[in-house]
Each structure stands twice: as C-alpha cells, then as structure tokens.
Design brief:
CATH class of the largest domain: Alpha Beta
Number of helices: 13
Structural class: alpha/beta
CATH topology of the largest domain: TIM Barrel
Length: about 450
C-alpha cells in the first residue's frame, strides 16, 4: 500500500498590529515557537481501488488466471490472489468476469460521421460542429472498451483540442494518439475532406508538411502512398501517390523526432515503396502479394487491416443507399480481395495491429471490437491472436509497451471486464460490462 507522508510544523504567523513593530514581534514570537515545538507527522492515506474476484488475462500466455488487481494513482500496482487490502480501500466485485487490457484501435477518424454514404456530405461542416461530433465519438469509443486510439487523419486540428480536454478530465474519451492532417499529393479527393488533407508535392514540401503536423502536436505522421477507395472518381486506389523519395522524406522527419509513420497503401507498388521507405505501419494493404507480405514480415512493418470498413458498410442499409455508385462499386469489388490478403498476411507472419477505419460509412464509432471478431471469424486468427492485435501488437506500434497492452504492474490501469470468456466466444469483446481507464471506472454494468 502506497502512502503519501507530509511533514509539517505548526506555526503562528498572525501579527496583532499592522505596523512594522507588530510584524517584527510576531516574527520573533513565531521563531521562538518553531524552536520549541516538536515535529508532527500527518499521514494522508491514498486509498487504492481493487478489482476483486475476476479472471485476469495474460496476453503473452493467451490464458486467464484468478487474481485481484490493485490500482493506485491510475496505474496497476499489484496483481495477485488474496492480496492484502487496507480498510477504506474501494473494492469492485468482478466475480465471474473476464478481465483484459483495454483494447487499442490503431486506425480511426473520430472527426468523420458514419451515417451517410457520401463523404462529400460532411465537407462543409464548421470546426465547432466537428469538435462536438469528435468529442461524442470519442466517448462512444471508450464506452465500447477501446481505451486507446490512433487517429490517422483529423479535421483542422480540432481533435487536438478534444485530446487536451480528455487529458484535462473535462471530456470523456480514450487515450488519443493523433496524426493531425494526413499528407497527400495533389488530388481532387481533398475536396471531400478539406479539413483532413495537407497537400504536399515533392520531398521538400513533404518535409515541411510533416514538420507542420509535429508543430501542431502530432504523435505520428500519416502519408498517402497510394490512392484511396473512398475518393473522387479521378483517383485510383491501384495507383501510387507519393513517390519513394517523398515517403522517405516523411519518414526522415518523423523518425528524427521520435515519431512513427503510418502509410495508407492499397496499390502493390505503393506498398513496396512504403516498406522500402521504412514506414512503421501500412494501412489496408489491399493488393499486396506474397513478396510484399514477406518483406513486411522481415522488416517488422505492422499491417493495420481495417476489415470493418468493408464489412460494416454492408450491414448499414442507409450508408449503402446513400453511397455514390463509383464508391459502392469499389467497395463491393475489392472487399473479398482485401480479406484474402489479411488472411495470407497472418499465415506469413506479418505483425497485425488492430485498426478499424472507424469513421467511414457504416463503420460507426463504438463498434471497434468488431475488427477483432472479423480477424478471428473471417481472417483465420485464433481468438488469442486476435486479442494480441488489439493489445501488445498495437502498443508496440504506438511505442507504448511500457504503459499499455498488457495487465502488468506499473502499466496504466486500462481494464475491461466481460461476462464471457472471449477465448470461447470472440464476440464477447463487443459486449463489455465494465470499462476502466487510468484507474477510473467510466462504465459499470455489473
């Protein structure tokens, strides 16, 4: 049990008169009292919070064990069975529950609304409206058990203000790792997402654009190595955008500043360029072949799959009905291709870090755990491997293994409680009963 000890000496500072003589007499009297009065110790107990009676998940072992979790000052201070508790400690009974680290989503767009199928419909929103939406999306995400997210393309930096509000405790949401604006070549797709795109043509312009994101408070740099699916009719997801030299420029600035780089890449040539440039993660990876996947595995380049972008779209009739024909055609044509690549990537040993692309049409904020379900049920990962993508693998990509990804002493007390064992039913991850972030319970349905 940690205790804060404060040493204090009782002193008298008041003077009976307001003139200098009275003040001098008071000071002399106080000094005499200070010499004669013994030190008094006042001990202020910092009460701990306990999660008691649950099954605690060991991500590395892929198994649960009975243990209690002690939380002090926002971090896990102890994990053991039958730990001694002090009188007054707060005890939360989680008997019959399965406790896991809070999940990490490495690819979201909290600023993007998900109800409409046409991205252009949101292009003219005011920054104030975007900020309000972002705060609500962040809260929904946290309540679903996603205690950390990496946002790979915000909107006019309003997400930075939301991050600051969450950190200050005036807003409820997950830990946010933010890219600011994503970097792109000149493209008409920027008209769809005017607050998200930072256009930069040429290596020097890319360096300058990357520096601007860092100056705004970015935690990483996001680059467009290829065209996108949810883009204008003149943009092709099978074509490269940034050249190898431009990608290397972004990586240079990011790594020089101890930040990492996420590369959007569908096209095969763009995937190869991104790997060769030294990016830390490749998003989507739709048209990768075995050669590219083996290069990723050898380089340790993480793959962030975003299967939800396709699957959840087709579960939302309104999003499908309002999607422009050229976008719907792309999403329909390439969804199965994408899934087959993710399955093959796992077979070839590519590190997969969970990411949903939440913010795309039908891909609603708060449904993030569906990515783990899809990785298991559609891409062939075991439940334990699926959970790894959203915990230790994601923490490694974020360079946060000392703080996140496992339930270990010293790490942030980000904990979710489930009523069912997710190793038996991966869909249990989508039915969260309790959410704790930094030792604070923000949802409790137990």
């Amino acid at each position: 049990m940690l205790r804060a000890v404060h040493l204090c000496r009782t002193r008298e500072f008041a003077s009976e008169r307001g003139d200098s003589k009275g003040t001098a007499e008071a000071v002399a009297r106080q000094s005499e009292l200070a010499r004669d009065e013994p030190l008094r110790l006042t001990t202020y107990a910092r009460l701990m919070r306990w999660l008691v009676g649950g099954q605690v998940y060991d991500v590395e072992q892929g198994s649960f064990r009975a243990a209690d979790i002690g939380v002090d000052d926002g971090r896990i201070s102890t994990i053991r069975s039958g730990a001694r508790r002090e009188s007054g400690d707060e005890v939360i009974d989680v008997s019959g529950c399965w406790l896991l680290p809070g999940l990490i989503d490495c690819h979201v767009h909290l600023t993007l609304p998900t109800d409409a199928g046409d991205p252009a419909a949101s292009a003219t929103r005011t920054d104030a409206a975007v900020a309000l939406y972002t705060a609500a999306a962040a809260e929904r995400t946290l309540m679903a058990g996603i205690t950390t997210v990496r946002d790979v393309g915000g909107w006019s930096y309003v997400e930075m203000a939301v991050r600051d509000a969450i950190n200050a405790g005036t807003c409820v949401g997950p830990r946010l790792f933010l890219a600011g604006r994503l970097l792109s070549v000149t493209t008409s797709t920027a008209d769809y997402y005017p607050g998200m795109y930072e256009v930069a043509d040429g290596a020097d312009a890319v360096r300058a654009a990357a520096r601007r994101q860092l100056a705004k408070g970015a935690d990483l740099i996001k680059v467009m190595a290829t065209g996108a699916m949810l883009s204008s009719e003149t943009e092709d997801s099978r074509a490269i955008q940034f050249t190898l030299a431009e990608l290397q420029a972004a990586v240079e600035i990011a790594h020089d500043n101890h930040k990492h780089v996420a590369a959007h890449a569908h096209a095969l040539a763009g995937i190869h360029n991104a790997i060769d440039a030294g990016v830390d993660s490749i998003e989507h990876c739709t048209f990768a072949d075995d050669e590219a996947l083996r290069k990723m595995a050898a380089a340790g380049t993480a793959l962030v799959p975003t299967l939800c972008a396709g699957d959840l779209l087709f579960r939302d009739p309104e999003a499908v009905a309002t999607m422009p024909p050229h976008l719907l055609s792309r999403m329909t044509e390439f969804n199965d291709v994408h899934l087959a690549v993710i399955r093959r990537a796992h077979e070839l040993g590519v590190v997969i870090a969970m990411g949903t692309d939440a913010g795309t049409p039908g891909n609603h904020h708060g449904l993030n755990a569906q990515e783990c379900v899809l990785l298991n049920q559609a891409a062939g990962l075991s439940p334990a491997d699926s959970i790894r993508t959203a915990t230790v693998n994601a923490a490694r990509l974020l360079r946060q293994t000392d703080h996140l990804g496992t339930l270990d002493e010293g790490k942030h007390a980000d904990v979710i409680a489930l009523r069912e064992n997710p190793l038996d039913d991966i869909e249990a991850l989508a039915r969260v009963a309790m959410v704790m972030t930094a030792g604070r319970v923000v949802r409790n349905d137990l």
